[in-house]
Amino acid sequence: IANAQVANTSAETSLVGSGIGERTLRSVDVVAGMRIWCRARGVISTAATPGNLTLRYKLGPTIILSATFLPAASLANRLWVVDFETVIRAIGMSGQLICAGELRIAGSARDFVTAAIIPVDFTVDRLVDLMAEWATASPSNNMRSGQFTLEFHRY
Question: How far apart are CA 86 and CA 103, in angstroms?
Fold first, then answer.
């Protein structure tokens, strides 16, 4: 994929660039037991006082996982990695899923866990997205993705 970045803004912005492949979960392909793996990697830089960073993993407008945290100050082009696994438990208008994942920035890990079943209407196609939102806009607050991989597994 092409790089995507969230820099000098406090607006929610996608970390998924354009490229080869499909990131739409088509309703006709959804089955109970289906797994979705999402992996993304890139680099992050932060200001001396970066403010909070919120990451959201979304299926269409539905937020599947969300975490807000304060990244370390004055990072310069440090590696970040996210890895999520979603399991679809029920399909149709009353669809359900559960998801868990991990974020690592410069070697420090943070868990993302869905404690409850999330309702999702699977009768419509859903775009898979990873969003980032800085609380403080700064030219030094920059999160850039270089890789984004989705795997849809039907069992």
Answer: 15
Q: For residue 118, what are the β-bridge partners?
A: 97
User: For the CA atoms of the chain, what is the radius of gyration?
Assistant: 16
Q: What is the dihedral of CA 54, 60, 64, 66, to 10 degrees?
A: 10
Give me the amino acid identity at 30: V
pLDDT tens track for 112-129: 777 679 999 999 999 999
Burial zone of 139 (CB within 10 Å; 0-12 exposed, 13-18 middle, 19+ buried):
exposed
Give per-residue pLDDT as tens, 53-68.
Answer: 999 999 999 999 988 8
Q: Give kind and range of the element (H or E) at residue 122.
A: none
Residue 60 is encoded by which pair of tokens?
A: 């269409």
Residues 6+ apart with CB under 8 A from 81: 39, 40, 41, 102, 103, 104
